[in-house]
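Can't paste images in this forum, so I'm doing it all in text. The chain is below; anyone willing to post the predicted structure tokens underneath?
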Amino acid sequence: METYEPFASLALVMAVGFLIGLQREQSMAREATGRRTFVGGIRTFPLVAVAGALSALLARAMGPWIVVTALVVLCVPAAIAYADDVRQGRDRGLTSETAYVLTFLLGALAPSGNVLQDTASRLLVVAALGVSVTALLSMKEALHDWAARVTKDDLYATVKFLVVAVIVLPLLPNRALDPLEVLNPFHIGLMITLIAGIGFAGYVAFRTLGPGRGLGVTGLLGGLVSSTAVTLSFSGRVKENSGMADACAAGMVLSWTVMFPRLLVIVAVVHPGLARSLVLPLGAAALAGAGASFLLYRRTRAQSAAGELLSLTNPFSLGTAVKFGGLFTLILVLSKLAVASYGGGGLVATGVLAGTTDVDAVSLSAAKLVYGGVDLRTAAAAILGACGANTLAKAGIAWTIGGWAFERRVIPAVLAMIVAGTAGAVAAWKVAG
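Text version of the structure:
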């Protein structure tokens, strides 16, 4: 045992107990009076933490039974008080009692070298858990408000996503099942999970912050979920109210801009080397799109409430996952055949054609084919071609639904992104030689 380890452990558990106790005392002060509670506040919780630490220290000489005995002794009065409150019909939850037990256990963990032998790691775990418990206790109202906004469909979609990511994916065979050696069930499942996870994270952020934060948040987070959905929604709004054209154009272009850093992250997960070759072109396109969005925002501020108009559904469903998996597999096979028949030009042509519907599948396919011998520059060209085709396709949607008056606001941004991306690609390839 290190010389000063007991002092550090006791000081830490006192601090953790004080932090949790302070939160509990403030919480009880805000709640309605007339509700009894045995569990204390700023003094009781540090004492409980110290009791846990001392029992763990004594256990080194007397055995682990002393920890169990101390916990039972401390919980008996709390259990009696709780039972009395329930018998009297008083409103009573289990949050304070659970925090009470957790505080004791954190105190017991701090000096327990047989659990985590490294002192620094052990104390860091105790401190991190103490702060996490306090944060969770402090976020009561926010968490309840968020839970109230979660729909039944959101919950089902979340569970299905977790089933796919945690249960189904590890069970898939990790080997190629075809002569072309491109159909690996585990890799296909991994790509589905990656895309669904990014869209799901954007959807959670969108629902948490809410579309009412304005077009900036709506375009940014909506682009993570589906920039096509943003395009359809904003274009339809402009068709109904032409006065919203500038604001909707700004938010829509921002959602398109998100595609470039999003793709960079996706490609980096699959093939970091390919991602490095795309930093300049995708970064330049993103900067151009962000600049165009800013210029459009400067033309209108009163229309920021247009962020209220977008309603996104949870992007993950089993049907969506199967469709994306099928599309990814089809593009992967077609790309492999195109490379075998026409070389790099076939992959680029496939990327441009397929990019009009889904740029993620193209990017993942190109990144996977690099491991099969495709040149980095060819794969990068296929991805950039898909980005350009996808941007033009969404501009076509905006024109078709929103009309020419709306489209002419978007054209400069589209041209800027394409020109900047092309210039970035040329510069990157010159640097690479």
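Confidence is low (pLDDT under 50) at residues 302-309. The chain has 16 helices and no strands.
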